[in-house]
Write a structure and sequence with these properties.
about 280 residues, alpha+beta, OB fold (Dihydrolipoamide Acetyltransferase, E2P), 4 domains, 5-stranded antiparallel beta sheet
Length: about 280
């Protein structure tokens, strides 16, 4: 069964002047226009194509690779806005419609927006939505293949920001938040990064971090702290009571990671921890 808005592997039935007809099974023959045909294409061979509806509503194949497929999210540019909605550049000749009803705020030509692609039930066409909370999960499931747990690596697409931090789409399925206290580099909307599940709230909302230190990494941080103390005066006024911002500015890690590192040095009796400073152990 062929899938609209997805990549499909189809068999070539005939090669005509206008292009090749592909076996669409229950969907009938599907045209692959000649301009998208590779020269080596032969009857009986299989070819990977993306399926969409043309201007006449006919199922059509292309070998071009769109920037987004149904079920995915992407950061796309607005090409045109008219009475129907905004039209986005998704890498195909026919632009992708973002209806007004799927826009939280009106868009203008030249702007970019993170959207998800889905099939509109009424028109049966592929359209986009910037109302991500309508199409993605905001809460972690407690069990099954879709369940996240702290420490899991995820693909994050940053889609917005709030007073608390940066909103992100993770794995094209869920929405999550990277708190300001866990931001150690410049974040841009539309940027894609690997992130990690930091924690999951009691209500199921997901928090991210860009870096989860393992024991080896914590050991490396502890070594750097110790080396700086030994090379300097033996005293640092950056303690476990310092602000997350001060720690991030100095060591580019979270306050939690810093506390674990100096805690390890303290247990090894290499440093002393005081209220307003740490120092080499005597």
């Amino acid at each position: 069964m062929v899938k609209l808005g997805q990549h499909n592997h189809l068999t070539v039935k005939n090669i005509l002047t206008m292009g090749a007809t592909l076996d669409g099974d229950n969907s009938g023959d599907i045209l692959l226009p000649r301009k998208h045909m590779p020269d080596s294409l032969q009857v009986g061979s299989q070819i990977e194509v993306f399926l969409y509806l043309d201007s006449d509503g006919l199922l059509t194949a292309t070998t071009e690779k769109p920037k987004i497929t149904v079920g995915q999210c992407a950061y796309l540019k607005v090409i045109e806005v008219n009475e129907v909605g905004a039209f986005l550049d998704w890498g195909l000749p026919k632009d992708l419609l973002l209806p007004y009803s799927e826009q939280p705020k009106p868009l203008r030509a030249g702007m970019h927006k993170v959207v998800c692609a889905y099939i509109d039930k009424a028109s049966k066409r592929i359209v986009a939505s910037a109302r991500l909370d309508k199409h993605l999960q905001e809460y972690n499931v407690t069990a099954g293949d879709g369940a996240f747990k702290p420490g899991d690596a995820v693909d994050a697409l940053f889609c917005g920001h709030s007073e608390l931090g940066y909103k992100a789409v993770i794995n094209n399925t869920h929405l999550a938040l990277l708190h300001h206290s866990d931001v150690y580099k410049n974040i841009k909307i539309g940027q894609q990064l690997q992130a990690y599940i930091k924690s999951i709230n009691a209500d199921g909302k997901i928090n991210l971090t860009l870096h989860i230190p393992n024991k080896a990494q914590l050991g490396d941080l502890a070594s750097q702290i110790l080396a700086e103390l030994e090379a300097g005066s033996g005293v640092s006024f950056l303690t476990d009571k310092s602000s997350p911002e001060e720690i991030k500015l100095k060591w580019h890690v979270s306050k939690g990671s810093y506390k674990k590192a100096i805690g390890a040095l303290y247990k090894q009796r290499k440093i002393e921890i005081h209220k307003d400073h740490i120092k080499l152990a005597e």
